Sequence to fold (159 residues):
Amino acid sequence: MAQVAFHGNVGKVRGLQFSQDGKPRFSFSVGESHSRMNKQTNQFEDTGTTWRSVTVFGKRAEALAETIQDGTKQQVVVIGREETRTYDNNGTPGSSLDCIADVVGIIPKAQQSTQPPAGGGFGQQQQGGFGGQQSGGWNAPASNPSGGWGAPQTNEPPF
Fold:
């Protein structure tokens, strides 16, 4: 077995199952797409997809069963132990990459809006945040209304 970390799109969800002694197991597949730069065309080209069967046990399995659903476009990051399993499908041998996951993180979908996120960003005038105008906060004494990162240092603790 080898320790692996990968990310990809959720494929088929086999769902939550229980062993004979009542222990939960959640299984689903993850497709990791590969591409490389074609130096002649200066374009990225799809070079295939690696599919892995992912299995999670215990309380994490029950939590993921509520979050990962079949038919939704979800991306995940998986860290776990990987092994290759061989099988026979009606006389045709095959192999499968199986992963027993220690960690599964769901990647949130990107915001579809063209407007900037609420609260602004770095250096914008806002309530709180990084570099924006604040009322109080770390290193922002009452005499320095700018506050935020880059404010004069004080010897006061930030709490």
Observations:
- The CA atoms of residues 109 and 132 lie 27 Å apart.
- Confidence is low (pLDDT under 50) at residues 119-151.
- The helical segments are 59-67.
- The first helix runs from residue 59 to 67.
